[in-house]
Every structure is written in C-alpha cells, then in structure tokens.
C-alpha cells in the first residue's frame, strides 16, 4: 500500500478522500453520522463548482456535517486541522474530519523533474473535542502564517503545470526559514524546546527541502521522519499519510510528542504540535 | 457605484477584494496590521496555485494575518463568516476580515440567460471579538449545511461555464427549502421567530429564487431586502455588498436584527443572524 503511485482514471479526488476518510473513522472508532464538519484539503484538482467536500461527506454518510474545501497548497492539511480545532471550541460541535487528497501527477509537466518525485495520495484524521485524556493523541497547539510577497514564486499557469520562478536552492532556503519561524513561534508559545519533541514529521517536499529543514531546525536528521522515499511528494497529504504509516509500523508510539510543519506555494507556512495516541483500532493496511 | 458591472481586464479577484477590504477596514476603524486572519470567498476565478488570499493580505498590509481562500459557491461569504467567528474564540485572535470577491461574468456562457443577470462585485466585513457591546453590529449565531446528493445539479465543465442540470423551477424550490431549513434551525436555536427579525437579506440569486424564498419563509416581501436590481447576481459577494449598500442609504439602521441566508452549488446552505451596528465611520461611496 505504501508506494508512490499515480491515480488511475476512475480515481478522483473524492474517491481517494473517501478511502482515506473511512480508514481514519475506523481508526478513531467514530461513525460518519456523528461528524459535525468535513474539511477537504486539495489544490491539485480544483473545480470552480462544485467543491469536492459535500460529495465526500455524502458518500461517507456524514449526514449532519457541513463540509468545505480548502486550498493552501502543501499546507492545506495543517490549515484544515487548525480550522477544525477552532470549530471544536464551539460547544455544539464535537467531531471534525480533516482529509487531504491530492493528485500532484496532474500538475507535473511531462518530462519535468516533478514527474520523478510527485505522487498521488490521501490521508485523513478525525479531531474530537474530549473532556479528559482519551486514547487519542492530543493536538497541543498550531501556528499558521502566510506571505503574499512570495505569491508568484510557484504558479500553475494555463497549461495546468507547476512553474517555479526561483532557483531550487532559494526555494529550499525559504522553506527552511519559514518552517523554522512557525515552529519557533509554536514551541515558544507552548514553552517547549525542540529537545522536548520526540519526532519532527514535516511535509516531505523534496530531498533538498528536507535537508534545508534539518539545517534550519538544528535537530539530528534521525529525528525527522517522512515516508517520502516510499510515496514521493504527495503535497498536503504527506503529513497524514506519513503519520498513518509510521504509527502502523510502530515507528512512533503513544505519548511521543510530534512537531509537524509544512510550507506551500502561496506562500504558506504552518506547524502543529501534538502527541501520538493509541490507535488501537488501527485498520489493516 | 452601485450598478451592475463586469470587471475590466486589469481588475482581478485580488484587486477587487483589496478595494472592498479597505472600505470595510475604514468603516470598522481597524488597521490592516491588526488583523489576525483574512478569509477570501471566491469560486468564479479559482487557481490551483497560488490562492488569492495571501496576496490580498500582503497588499492590505495585514502583516501578521494568516489568510486562505474558501470556495463554497454563493454561500462562501457566510461560510467565511462562520469560520472567522470560530477562529475568534481562540483568545490569541481578535480581528478577522472576511471578503467575498467574484467575477461571475467569467462563468456565463456568451448568449446565455446568465449574461443578463450576473454581475462582478466584492464586499467585505471585519469581525472583532469584543468584551461588551461596542458600536459594531453583533453576530448572534450562524448555521451551515451542505448536501452532496445535489452536487451535480450545478457544474462548471471544462468550457468554464455554469451548467444547471435541473429545471429552473426545481432549483428555486430546492433553494427556498434549503434556506427555510437553515434559517429555521438557526432561529429555533436562538429562541427567535421570524417576527423578531427586522429584515431578511438573502443571497440574491435570481428573481425566481427570491420569490421562492418569500413563499418559503412566509415573510412579507417588503421585509426582504437585496440590491439585486442594481448589481445583479454577484454570488458570494451579494450579502456584504447589499449590507454595505443598505446601511449607507439608511435603509437598515443600528439595532435592526437581520437574517441573511444563502445557497450555492455544491450543494451549500448557510444562514447568519446579526444586529446592525453604528457604521459611524462609513466611508464615502
């Protein structure tokens, strides 16, 4: 299951999202009918109308949930988690599903370097407002940022393909700097140091971005985990897919403290700090 | 200023959003640098990458705000208001800007009926968390819903134009039923009746939709206000543009209780209940 793949012709954003969402619901032991909100992160196959999220909610049987799409490029999953977290402050909501579903293969110019590293994938998590400590992990806090000054450095033009307007090296440095900034603010606000974090699970991006993150955060490379080598760059789905993968393999364990951070064309940056829960109901891969 | 218009070649979604946002910031007496979040509702001119919101935030000088786009068709402004409202429950956020900017003219097939009623427009409001009653209006509550079962009834196909798959009469009935449902739930939860509402300011849609809403809500037609006759159907911008218009003209007044409701292809439905504030700093139109 964990291999780089490109979606087939019958597999759209909604179909992939539904598979990932069912897996997340089973893992969390939550019935789709009890969801209050469904947030779908996707930028690789957007439509003007309709959004994908209402159809995903309907196929899941999330009858009383409202639903909407989010773009935010590769930072979409973390932006979605933040949105869900704030929704759950409202006492009338209790459970939200955040699913990222991307077909990056559609945005790579044939023959470009992107075709070598991009993958299609979907990952999802359920967030639930809980009174005390339950078996689930806990979202400690998050930090979001954006900088429209860099809006033009990554663009999809009318041909539908990604065009990067700055040198790869500069892009890696900007990514590393942005991740260091949001992560630093997040950790400082929560009075934690990077040494208190068991693992860093960033949006995988490219190998160059990963190396730049290692330098920028000054953490041992062995504490940074991704499954980039297996699935490629699956954009906003990279963090939930990696988490699912790493928990299923026992690589990360209940109680571990994780810092996840992502950047994306826009320019977006986002980070989340959380503990890993007992995914006792983990379904077979 | 209040006339149906189609944007010129130099006027994009971001440019229109910036004009509306500056107007809202001046009206609220808020400095863009003090915004924590910028949410941009737009579906008529979406791009894969980058979103418009980070560029809008940057042009406004909203240096510490995070920003993202929302689709949600004609319900985008109310979905954005709901998202902003929940963000503001977090004590570290205080002010959010919600701006809807649409160029429906780009989605109307030349020669179609749509060209007769669609308009381009942008409208914006600032939401601020306040301890007591200030000069601003107050968002009492909102209600969101969606129904993916009707996802296929309105679609933009590869030609970029809106295609409606059901009869106009059925669409009007569905719109009216959806608006009655979300409005009914919203009013009931807040122990209010339609008689307690001074004005209903719905997403204007079409004349047919408006007539259906009048029937469905069973309110006198004179209590339903839009500026559809002047600006046409400006999609998600219709509610903020109408509000701005009606307040500037003195048609609605401080203390009035307003119910706004919208539907959109997806299928989306949303409603908000609020009081009108003193827009003392209303800028010249």
Account of the protein in words:
2 copies of one chain form a homodimer. In chain A, 31% of the residues lie in helices and 21% in strands. With 285 residues, chain A is α/β, with parallel strands linked by helices. Chain A folds into 2 domains: 13-128, 3-Layer(aba) Sandwich (Peroxisomal Thiolase, Chain A, domain 1); 138-275, Thiolase/Chalcone synthase (Peroxisomal Thiolase, Chain A, domain 1, 3-Layer(aba) Sandwich). In chain A, the strands form 3 sheets. The first copy, chain A, has a 4-stranded mixed beta sheet with strand order 2-1-3-4, with helices on both faces. A 4-stranded mixed beta sheet of chain A has the order 5-10-9-8, sandwiched between helices. In chain A, strands 6-7 form a two-stranded antiparallel ribbon. In chain A, helix 1 (13-28) packs across helix 2 (53-60). The radius of gyration of chain A is 18 Å and the shape is globular.
Secondary structure class of chain A reads alpha/beta
CATH architecture of the largest domain in chain A: 3-Layer(aba) Sandwich
Q: Identify the CATH class of the largest domain in chain A.
A: Alpha Beta
Give the CATH superfamily of the largest domain in chain A: Thiolase/Chalcone synthase
What name does the CATH topology of the largest domain in chain A carry? Answer: Peroxisomal Thiolase, Chain A, domain 1
| Percentage of residues assigned to helices of chain A | 25-40%
Helix and strand arrangement:
The structure is a homodimer of 285-residue chains.
Chain A lengths: L12 H16 L8 E5 L11 H8 L5 E5 L5 H12 L7 E9 L10 H4 L2 E9 L9 E9 L7 E3 L5 E3 L3 H22 L9 E2 L6 H11 L10 H4 L6 H11 L8 E8 L3 E8 L10
Parallel strand pairs in A: 1-2, 1-3, 8-9
Antiparallel strand pairs in A: 3-4, 5-10, 6-7, 9-10
């Amino acid at each position: 299951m964990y291999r780089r793949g490109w979606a087939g012709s019958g597999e759209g954003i909604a179909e992939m999202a539904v598979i990932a969402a069912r897996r997340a619901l089973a893992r969390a032991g939550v019935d789709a009918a009890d969801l209050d909100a469904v947030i779908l992160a996707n930028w690789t196959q957007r439509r003007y109308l309709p959004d994908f999220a209402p159809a995903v909610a309907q196929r899941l049987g999330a009858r009383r949930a409202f639903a909407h799409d989010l773009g935010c490029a590769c930072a979409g999953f973390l932006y979605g988690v933040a949105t869900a977290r704030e929704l759950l402050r409202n006492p009338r909501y209790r459970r939200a599903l955040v699913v990222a579903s991307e077909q990056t293969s559609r945005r790579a110019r044939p023959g470009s370097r992107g075709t070598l590293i991009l993958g299609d994938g979907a990952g999802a998590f359920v967030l639930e407002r809980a009174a005390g400590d339950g078996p689930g992990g806990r979202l400690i806090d998050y930090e979001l940022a954006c900088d429209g000054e860099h809006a033009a450095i990554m663009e999809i033009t009318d041909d539908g393909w990604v065009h990067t307007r700055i040198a790869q090296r500069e892009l890696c440095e900007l990514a590393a700097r942005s991740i260091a900034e949001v992560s630093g603010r997040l950790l400082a606000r929560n009075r934690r140091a990077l040494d208190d974090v068991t693992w860093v699970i960033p949006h995988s991006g490219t190998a160059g971005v990963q190396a730049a993150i290692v330098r920028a955060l000054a953490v041992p490379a062995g504490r940074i985990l991704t499954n980039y080598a297996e699935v490629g760059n699956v954009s906003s789905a990279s963090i939930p897919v990696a988490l699912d993968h790493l928990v299923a393999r026992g690589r990360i364990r209940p109680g571990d403290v994780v810092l996840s951070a992502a950047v994306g064309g826009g320019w977006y940056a986002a980070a989340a700090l959380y503990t890993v829960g007992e995914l006792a109901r983990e379904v077979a891969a």
